[in-house]
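Marked as duplicate of an earlier ticket. Keeping the data here for the record.
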Amino acid sequence: MRTAALEPTRMQQSYQECERLARRSRSNFFLAFQTLPREMYLQMCVLYAFMRKTDDLSDQPGVPLPERHLLLSRWRGDLQQALAGNEAADPILRAMADVADKREIPASHLFEVIDGVAGDLTPRTFETFSELEHYCYQVAGVVGLCCLKIWGCHTAGPHPAAIACGTAFQLTNILRDLREDAERGRLYLPREEMTAFDYSAEDLQAGAFTEAFRDLMAFQVKRAWTFYQQAFPLARELTPPGRRIFLAFFDVYSQLLREIEKARFDVLSQRIHLSRWKKTRVVLSCLLRLEPKMIPLPAPRITSDQNSLNVQES
């Protein structure tokens, strides 16, 4: 994978465009980016810009569905050309190809993201957790693997903890956004699990906050915690700059899952979120942390078989 030789100023402009996009997001994660060494910081801005642009291409309500499919298909083709060493017209793809080349990010990771986002263009449902877990890998797990390439990791080879981390974060997002996604025809909770808890897609679309829904959510949240537990050991494998930003991400998302629990799983009448101040405080405290320290997580009651509906008694 070789990027086309560009004049330094042209490549610098591509990186600057990605940096501008990341800064405009006003995300607390951008604050975390700024703690990284300059090269890592810019590369994280590029990765963020690529993910953001990919998502935006699919999420344009005013654009007809066939056109959004076409836009994503062209984006995929343009990425393929850029990774093959041809100069891309889009500055984000120019920079992304450069980062992929320097950090040896597999092209398959970036294509997985596009494929995952493309799947959301039409009403989406999952029959089993195995199907949902693959989706989480596409839109979040591979992002974690890309981050490892940028941050630096002391161990080579497969990194299941990074994939578990992406799954944990994506499951948290899914649980927070259940009502909003249902209104858009997206049902992320596995149908076989909804059936097991006697809660239907129609119930979810109607916003029915019932005992069955609370039981279903309790099951989903406890499973999400198991992925957080699988992900945390990754902290000790990262370089110091990567460790700090990983802990910042980890704590923000795990705090969000705690907020869902505190709300007694009521994500239907409100959108659970962390205040800007709380997110900033969490991020800053993690960035000042020298050694990874596992925050107390609830003891998981889900069996080791993540596809099983069997729940152990605590």
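See parent ticket for discussion. Confidence is low (pLDDT under 50) at residues 299-308, 310-314.
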